[in-house]
Prior knowledge:
EC number: 3.6.4.13
GO molecular function, one term: RNA helicase activity
Bound molecules: cytidine-5'-diphosphate
Keywords: ATP-binding, Helicase, Hydrolase, Nucleotide-binding
Number of strands: 26
Strand content: 15-25%
Protein name: RNA helicase
Amino acid sequence: PTSVPKELEIRRENPSVEEETSQTSQPKKIPSITTARKNPAANGIRPNIQSAPPPSDQSNHSSSRLPNGKAHVQPQNGLSRKREALLSTKKGLPIWPHAEGIRAALRRNNVLVLTGETGSGKSTQVPQFLLSEPWCSKCIAITQPRRVAAISLARRVAEEMGTFMGTGKAAKVGYSVRFDNATGPNTRIKFLTEGMLLQEFLRDPEMEQYSAIIVDEVHERSVNVDLILGFLRNLVADLERGKAKKRKQPLKVVIMSATADVEGLVKFFDDGLKEETANGEAGGEAVEETNSVTPGAKKDKKMAKRSASDDTQPQQDNRISTCFVEGRQYPVKMVYLPEPTDDWVESALKLIFRIHYKEPLPGDILVFLPGQDTIEGLEKLVKDYAEGMEKDVPKLLALPLFAALPQHAQQLIFEPTPARTRKVILSTNIAETSVTVPGVRYVIDCGKSKIKQFRNNLGLESLLVKPISKSAAIQRKGRAGREAAGQCYRLYTEEAYNGLDERTTPEILRCDLSHAILTMKARGVDDVINFPFLDRPPREALRKALLQLLNLGALEETGVISERGLKMAKFPLTPTLGCVLVEAAHRDCLLEAIDIVSALSVENVFLNLTTDERKEEAETARRDLYRREGDHMTLLVTVQRYAEERTGRKAWCERHFVSHRAMQNVLNIRKQLRELCKSLKMLSYIPSDTPPAPSEERTKDILQCLLRGFIMNTARFMPDLSYRTFIGNQTVAIHPSSVLHKRQTEAIVFTEFVFTTKAFARGVSAVQYDWVDEVIEKVF
Ligand code: CDP
């Protein structure tokens, strides 16, 4: 008998789901977390265990870290055995029957727009389909919005191909993400983040090292993807017009998306090609579908239509192919909250245990939360409660997944679930489309995500927790029905769902554009206003970004990129951080600035402690690292001390409550930034040791470099004991994580602006009022 759970009202989204779900047993009672603390089983709900989950596809590799931290995956038990084992899985993917159609489309045309549900096999299979094509003599690039996806896809594809992944000569597959390049001389398939491909565009505008560029996850519409699309549109058009300067071979471009606006993308590329029509060459309809319509028939029709006007350029027809891969989606039962809640952590916690006690294994749970803080909070609670479960209840394994998580921890979600265990993956929107987590049958969606928002009036960019769009909610729900019928619990009401925006606003319409514009300028795009944007950003946002670059000295008054700007663009950093480094080279404190910037490029050097007791302990232990000048000098001292520690770095970290993994990353980034600075002639040599702790004079120089880059992020102390920004007069409070929290100083500069309950400055240094005035005078 089905009874409606107390707190969750069941609504059905469509009739087919209804049929399916009427078979499933409904939970009788939700374990009450408040009354059964540490023992959710106390209310008598027993686990329903059917079988242990089967090992996932990822189980058969031995992955190891090279001494330099690079990944090296070595297929085990013979390359071919591994490949064979995965072949049947590959053949079962929805994209498999489209292989020939995709190859044929790209033999005819240079651009293919391919859409297919997440998990249909786009990212893993398409590069493999293309590898043996006659036109494909060089490397295939495939972009990803996130590091974790680029790395895990590279591993997976290497396994499927039975080859090595990494830097070695035998490796055919590799990845390149910021500060971590795992590609070798013979890499044929390269997964890289969008930012890395943009960097390559700067070095090699005609992308000569690639035979094909696949742009994946276009629906996420990051600023970087929009720039890549604009550059590719121009490049494809130039190549077709014979205007390329160096490139002789064709370039094939595949645009892939889970929910793409196909028409918009086709029109976008077609418009690029049509510009040649204006010069008297052939135009006409440009779309050709590789499936659902017999290509020949359609082509014949079009040819007939066009031949009346122009017989001379038949090859100009059907220049952009489209392909739709129908997904495999099992029914998903929908459950909404009857009343809105803000306490997602509590609601999710109850649901996790209810599912665990009522639903059979296998079937992992995927929980979508807005960010690292809520994820870590829930992770801890799940672990605490799971400890209190009886012995005969299957185990619960809580695994976090967010962008800043160290690589090895991200990789855990792909490891096979141990016997009699259920995984609970606590993720940001990373798992929405970018990463396919195998084994999931239950989705809990809090309906929120953190998004970057540029506040034009303040000139500051901040991360805000906002409701997701309908399309994101649908994607999240879809994660539950990939392998079998599943369930999706939305921690919001159906009314709230109906009120969501249809789509997420593309990032380019809501974020700071200075990085994007610097990239464009460095790539030779002088007229940014007329750059082919898929969605044109508001003029005001473009103007603000240009102004910001002018203030940073990256542009000349004429709008042309300056020497300084060219250097800044070469760094895989925001223009502000790039500016700090360039300024530091002038003031002769570059090594120190590199250390600070490296520490700012990783999340949380200092461990986040939850209990007051531990917090106090940490405060005492870190006292000799803390600097009264603020967080940046504290970071510098921490990096320097860590680097000097030759033997027991791990123990040193433990003693100081510092994250060892974060510090390993910091040193890796520092090494790369030092090398980059040397290649840009900003550094004459790379020292083998750490510079001595800075004198007072040098400290002043370092802080003034920070000011030069972050002049927009400065605030003065007010008689009412608040801080107000110099520009914009906005109130900000010093974040509790800062060493300057609760301290009063005449002026501050901060490297991050966060808006949670109120506006916070994070990463704060104390500066003198006069210094700020001086820079403002010089800049504005
Ligand atoms: O790109 P798309 O979302 O269409 O699919 P995909 O990423 O190519 O994934 C196809 C299948 O490969 C998924 O259903 C996963 O089961 C598997 N896969 C995996 O096991 N490990 C990865 N790192 C990536 C994919």
